Amino acid sequence: MSDQPVAPVVVSPVSPVASSVLSVVSPVAPVAPVAAHEPPYYAVVFTSVRTEGDNGYGETADRMGELVKEIPGFLGEDAARTPGGLGITVAYFRDLAAIDEWRNDMGHRAAKKYGREHWYERYSIHIAKVEHSHAFERADD
Q1: SS3 breakdown of the chain: % helix, strand, coil, rounded to 5?
Q2: Peptide bond connecting 40 to the previous residue in cis, omega within 30 degrees of 0
Q3: Burial of 82 by CB count in 10 Å (0-12 exposed, 13-18 middle, 19+ buried)?
Q4: Strands, E, within 32-71: which ranges?
Q5: Which parts of the sequence belong to the ABM domain (predicted)?
Q6: CB 12 within 8 A of CB 25
Q7: Three-state DSSP class for 43?
């Protein structure tokens, strides 16, 4: 159980990547969760509380969002931020090797270092193996 206060969630259609950054933008495209994939695969859950101000965060978030797509085994990501400031990004990877490749990417490492120094009050990262996955989509009537 979390000690975080409950608050409504604002969903971002452009999620910028689990272990580095989270950016909330006004929806300009339909919002949809990452599709279900054939298990097993892995979910990296990055939960954060940001500092005040942008300080280059948005630009870096966009760059990291593009960079992670180059990692073989990256499956997609979902992100949301509460009005109270809690951000959650879940990035999905086919295997632990893909997560390691992303964790060790030099651009990502630089963004993480800068994030600890400037963007985050606190964060946590959880890695979980997904053993079941399914999806639902309402059919057009």
Answers
A1: 25, 30, 50
A2: yes
A3: middle
A4: 41-50
A5: 40-113
A6: yes
A7: strand
